[in-house]
Each structure stands twice: as structure tokens, then as C-alpha cells.
Amino acid sequence: MPDQPVPVPVERLGFEMPPVHDTADAARAHRKERLAEALRLLGRLGYEDGVAGQITARDPEFEDCYWVNPFGRAFTALTADDLLLVDGDGRVVRGGRRVNQLAFAVHAAIHRRRPEVVAVVRAQGPYGRALAALGELLAPITEEACAFYEDHALLDEYSGADEPERTALALGPYKALVLRNRGLLTVGDSVDAAVWWFIEAERAAQVQLIARAAGKPVPIDHRAAALTRGRFGSDLAAWVSYQPLRELVASTS
């Protein structure tokens, strides 16, 4: 497990801190709104492919229940009212549509194994899938990629079907997982952080593939990469970094 990251002094940047809610209802409403916004953003960025792609967010009150996008609905059209509440066995508790049960089972397994995780993102980006086709981890060749240094893993196996427990075990204590021949999966202690890690991992994969095509990338050494991860690799840093992107959908909702 990676060293604990150095706290980011976000108060110096003028950002509000992640909100703290007095009631479960308030926390639930906020989490659902952030989830719907994140889905719309990923849709705008092109990170969905047909019916594939899912974000889950743990309910703040009900144990082993998670909010998730309904099966077969475009990300860009979703609102908080469209989200489903699904229990850990894949049963829809609230909502009138179906859930992608095969994909949801993976999310549920991760949530159960990682109780500190609020959100899990599994979406479809071209560069993450290309990196996964190579069976490679993200290399520490840029400052941004160092956020994942020794804090992500590779599931170096393709079985043709999602395997919940194996995927959750492969993720371990890390923030991201490269699923060989499939793509990327990320987690975070908020919806904002988990989505930012997915977008940042996708971008890091893009740079890595471009650099490899152009020549031989020069990696950042272990000490510098670890220090950089300490500065920029926390979920709080991810939450802060995500806020400008979030404005893209929040301002047009």
C-alpha cells in the first residue's frame, strides 16, 4: 500500500472544502446530484459506448445499497431523479428501470471490500482501453501520471466476463485498476474524486501512448514520483481538481 499522501493546503487556493451534511437525506441528495452531473460529464467527454459504463455511489444511510445509472440510458440525459438505488445483491430498491447486473456485481464487490470507498467508476475511454490491450500500468512519465505511482494495479487476465471478487481483489487498496483488454476502473472517497481519477488516468494513458509512439519515454525516478504522488495523489486533491470540470455540467443543468 502506498505511503499516506501529504495533505493538500486547499484553503490557500480559495476552494471550498467538500461539504459536510447534517442529515442522511441532505447527504443523499448531494451525492445523487454529483453522480448525475458526473455521468453527464463523462457522456460529453465520450466515455460511454452503447450500454457500457457505470458509476456507483454508496448510499450514506442504507448499508450495502448504492445509487447507479439505469441500464440503457444515455449518460448525457440523466438527472438525479433517474438514478436507481440497488442493494448489494443487484435488486432495485428504488427506481423503475433495470440495472446492468453483471457490471453492478463488480461495483458491489469493490464497495464491500473497501468500506471507505464512496464511488466506483467504470467507463469506456479509448486510451485506457488501448493501454489495457497492452497489459501495461500507467508509467510515471509525467507529473500527472505520478498521482497513480504505486497506487494502481493491473488485472492481468481476460476471461470474457466480469468477475466481481477477482476484480475487487486485484484492485486491493489502490485508487485505480487497469483491466487487461477492457480498460480502466477508479475509486474515491467522493463521486468527484473517483471521476477525476478516471479522467486523469485516461489522459495519462493517452500521453503514455503518444510518448511511446514518438520515442522512448524518460521515467521520473522513484523518489520524485513518490513525492509527487504525495502532493497530488490524495482524494482531496482529486476533489479540488475536479471542480472546474464539474462546472461544465453544473452551469448548463
Automatic annotation (TrEMBL):
InterPro entries: Aldolase-II_Adducin_sf (IPR051017), Aldolase_II/adducin_N (IPR001303), Aldolase_II/adducin_N_sf (IPR036409)
Protein name: Class II aldolase/adducin family protein
PANTHER family xref list: ADDUCIN, PROTEIN HU-LI TAI SHAO
UniProt similarity note: Belongs to the aldolase class II family.
Domain Class II aldolase/adducin N-terminal: 33-209
Record NCBIfam families: PRK06208.1 (NF004855)
SMART domains assigned to the protein according to its UniProt record, in alphabetical order: Aldolase_II (SM01007)
A Pfam family that the UniProt record links to this protein: Aldolase_II
Signal peptide: none
Originating species: Streptomyces nojiriensis
